Amino acid sequence: MKKLFLALALIASPAFAVNPDEVLDDPALEARAREISAELRCVVCQGENIDESNASIARDLRLLVRERLVEGDSNAQVIDFVVERYGEYVLMKPTTEGANILLWWAGPALFVIALLGAGAYLRRRSTSAEPAARLTSDEQARLDELMKG
Fold it and tell me: What are the protein's UniProt keywords (predicted)?
């Protein structure tokens, strides 16, 4: 049963765009290349990693990753090399250092500011509401007359 489930999962998984001529002969290096490729974003497709993308730049990046691995670079060195060339945008998970800290904290900070603003607005609105003026005796008599119909 587990084998059937595994086979169905493999069939249903997304097809990778890696071409047969890109695959390394060493299975350990190829596994590392796939691991690195999953962490790098295609600069054209924006939502796909370079393993899933059919764009020519993604192919170039896949070849570059494999070339660096064959030369003996570690995974971190390969990623650093690609980031140095293309910028942090190529990372699927951006770092939380430097200017990126603003991006990581901007959402929660704006949410807190919006909550404080909404609270202040509601508080001001509830305290500034004046009670309705009472009806005069003539108005009350007219209302009673209308209500009796």
Answer: Cytochrome c-type biogenesis, Heme, Iron, Membrane, Metal-binding, Signal, Transmembrane, Transmembrane helix
Q: How many domains does the chain have?
A: 2
| Gap between the terminal Cα atoms of the chain | 79
Q: Give the integer Cα–Cα distance in Å for 23 and 72.
A: 17
CA distance 16 to 134: 75
User: Among 99, 24, 19, 30, which residue's Cα sits nearest to residue 38?
Assistant: 30
Distance separating alpha carbons of residues 149 and 147, to the nearest angstrom: 5
DSSP 52: T
In whole angstroms, how large is the CA radius of gyration of the chain? 31
Residue that has been written with the tokens 């490729």 in this structure: 37
**Widest Cα–Cα separation across the chain:** 99
64 and 124 in a single domain? The answer is no
Taking the whole predicted model, whether its pTM rises above 0.85 is answered as no
100, 88 contact by CB (below 8 A): yes
Distance CA 80, CA 60 (A): 16
Domain extent, residue 80, equals 2-90
Output phi, psi for 133, to 5 deg: -70, 145
